[in-house]
Amino acid sequence: MPAIPISKQFNFPVSSANPIFFLGVDAGGSKTDALITDQAGTVLGSGRSGCGNHQLGAEAAARNIEAAVNQALHSAGLTKDAIAFAFFGLAGADRPADYSILRPLIAKLGFARWQIECDTMIALRAASRFPYGVVLICGTGINCAARSVSGTEIQIGGLGELYGDFGGGQSLANDGFRAVIRAWDGREAPTELTGIFLQTLNYPDVETMRDDFLDHNYQNVPLTVVPPLLRLAAEGDPAARAIACRQGKELALSAQTAIRRSNLQNEDFDVVLAGSVVVKGPDAYLRDIIAEEVTALAPLAKIVKLTAPPVIGAVLRAMDEAGTAVNPAVLESLKNVTL
Asked: Which fold has domain 131-306?
């Protein structure tokens, strides 16, 4: 991930008589959100459109990003010239090759001052007390990224199993399925996962479930089994606990690597947990493993969960880049926003 300075320090004067307007955009694979606020974090306008990931079609992404931005400007009653800084968190902004596509795409929108970065980083900023820190994403797959105190950004993984990743909701679901099959045929001890999988996937017995998967050449298990798997792990089922423990330690390893490479070991910072597995699911067991491993390396680190919309992080990054102070009142105002 290219290094991006935390702030260009434009140092706009702040007063109620001289309002400053910021635009944040979160362009993801399913939707694009745009949000406009003033320097106090008061929401003035918002917009939403479709997929903003250029890897799924650059022309469509450009149209959707522009549509969301225009909706936000219209609802705020502002023009592009009124925006002090526009910040874009973009899915698929992973490598220099991506930035060579995305920079011209965003430049065409016509903002005077703007910046782009991977959407993982706005997820970090949306929940962190500081512009720096670590974000761990555990959804269908996993990803990890960090920003150092000086503003250097790195990404750990996020490119798939072939490139060193392990885990995420799909891996948890598939590992649970394997545990059920192995318990059924006698290779492993009985597990409460069996009843959970049969009930959740609506099969009368393991043999019927196995044969249905074979007959239809299913390669992945539905993610609906992940929340009950994590609940069983917290309750102590050995098979479920082994699966969840491996996932927790892998996430912690990514965080530790990011911490070392960003020289955050002695800093007070947040490790932000994001993604459906850790945000929407019963994450206590995973969270405890991550916290234990991370704080052994960085004692001042705090584990926090992303609860605000990620686009909030894009607005905060716009404020950071503009050199506008982000005080606790601004953070509180923005993190209570719902879209």
From this structure: Nucleotidyltransferase; domain 5 (3.30.420)
Q: How far is CA 86 from CA 37, 285, 335, in A?
A: 11, 38, 19
Task: Give CATH for domain 21-112+308-336.
Answer: 3.30.420.40
Q: Cβ atoms within 10 A of the Cβ of 337, count?
A: 18
153-156 vs 142-147, strand pairing mode: antiparallel
Q: Which two tokens stand for residue 315?
A: 């607005």
Spans of all domains in the chain: 21-112+308-336, 131-306
How crowded is the C-beta side of 39, counted as CA atoms within 13 Å? 18
3-state DSSP call for residue 246? helix
Q: pLDDT digits over 115-153, tens only? A: 999 889 999 999 998 989 999 989 888 899 999 999 999
pLDDT class of 247 with cuts at 50, 70, 90? very high
Burial of residue 79, with CB atoms counted within 10 A of its CB: 0-12 exposed, 13-18 middle, 19 or more buried:
exposed
Longest dimension (CA), the chain: 74
- In terms of Cβ atoms closer than 10 Å to its own Cβ (0-12, 13-18, 19+), residue 101 is middle
Query: Can you give the pLDDT at residue 172?
Result: 95
